[in-house]
Amino acid sequence: MLADLSPLIAATTEWLTRSYPACGGALQAALGEVQARQAVTAAAWLRYPTPMDAALVHMAGPGGSAALDWITGADPAGLAEPDDVAWRTWVDEVVASWAACLLTDPELARLAIAAIADGGHTRAAPVEFRRLVSPDADDREAAALLRHPDLLAPVASLHRPALHERLDPGRALIA
Fold it and tell me: Which residues, including other chains, have CB under 8 Å from residue 166's CB and lie 6 or more apart?
């Protein structure tokens, strides 16, 4: 099905969790990944709200992680595995930026979840975004880097105005 955004969601989640890894062991890594995946899923559904939008991103491609890698100081050229380079082509810069905004701004995350609640993506199955909108102490501890506003600022600021416009069209962004 061309409306499936799972490759884009998986790659963008992978990029976020590698760029801002969880602190601790396997449980913390899993909690951090769940939060990243929820933020990326919400951002992707906002960015590509219709099956046609999703089909178009499948045809054109999301753009890859090169600009994001440069902003965060990553060196993908030093990657040894070709598979490690391949998934990076499915990273969507706008989705990563919007996810960073959602991870660092609880009110914006609640607005985003409300905006997608009636969308076509949630009709097939109910989706819960609790770890994104109501993280508990364990979630916050596991995703300390992933939710740190100062660390995510360079990524979040890339497309924050477009997210605000999507969530509240016509309202001026006050930064």
Answer: 46, 47, 115
CB 43, CB 8: distance < 8 Å? no
Q: What's the token pair of residue 21? A: 């890894």
Residue 48 CA: distances (Å) to CA of 116, 126, 138, 144: 11, 18, 31, 28
- Residue 49 CB contacts under 8 Å (≥ 6 apart), including other chains: 116, 119, 120, 121
Q: Return d(Cα 121, Cα 46) in angstroms, integer.
A: 10
Full-model pTM? 0.90
Residues 6+ apart with CB under 8 A from 113: 42, 129, 132, 133
Place of tokens 């975004």: 129
pLDDT digits (tens, 9 = 90+) for 13-71: 999 999 999 988 999 999 999 999 999 999 999 999 999 999 999 999 999 999 999 99
Return d(Cα 33, Cα 22) in angstroms, integer: 8
